[in-house]
Amino acid sequence: MRLVRIISAIAFYLTRILSAGYILTTLHLLISVIFTLPTLKMLPQNRFAICYPFTDKPFLLGSVYEASYIAEMVMVIGFYGLFFWLLGNVFKTFRQTKLFTVQGIRHLKLFYIANLIVCPIMFAILGISSQEDLPYGVMVTAHIIMGIFALFIAAIFQQGVNLQKDQDLYI
After folding, report:
1. Residue whose C-alpha is closest to residue 93's, from 111, 115, 113
2. In degrees rounded to 5, what are phi and psi of residue 156?
3. What pTM, to 2 d.p., does this model score?
4. Which of 19, 45, 55, 141 has CA atoms 20 to 30 A from the CA of 91?
């Protein structure tokens, strides 16, 4: 179990860093576009780039400078910020000394809801209205598989919590 805690701790911090990166990127994109900051560079053929703060070096490239395309970028990048935050919470659950907790079940539940409900709805909307030709079906399938595993683990955790409650009654 010690190895699981070590790996979970490393994965927790990595997912927090990824989450922060995605969320900050989403905020930077929104602020740059809404306030037309110098970090927003217009390119030929109605394309655009979002540059790193305080530089002229682009790190996000947009195919079309339109509100629908920018909303799509914000949705996808923001979703992955949320995804990595929720995944970090799952890893946080596995770091604890007491494994089967109500809070752990809640973390797993939020993770599987995001993967089984939010993700397919978001990618279905994007599949209909998107200007990009991305493999949304593959992405949704991967998220559904992760969601199903999280659902199963949440059910196991619920059984563990119930067994711990029964054990506490006998002692």
Report:
1. 111
2. -65, -40
3. 0.90
4. 141
Could you list the beta-strand ranges (E) of 114-160.
Answer: none
Q: Is the pLDDT confidence value at 171 over 80?
A: no
Q: Which residues contact 3 (CB under 8 A, 6 or more apart)?
A: none
3-state secondary structure 2-69: HHHHHHHHHHHHHHHHHHHHHHHHHHHHHHHHHCCCCCEEEECCCEEEEECCCCCCEEEEECCCCHHH
- Say if residues 78 and 23 touch (Cβ distance below 8 Å): yes
Helical axes 136-170 vs 102-113, angle rounded to 10°: 160
pLDDT per position as a tens digit, 67-78: 989 999 999 999
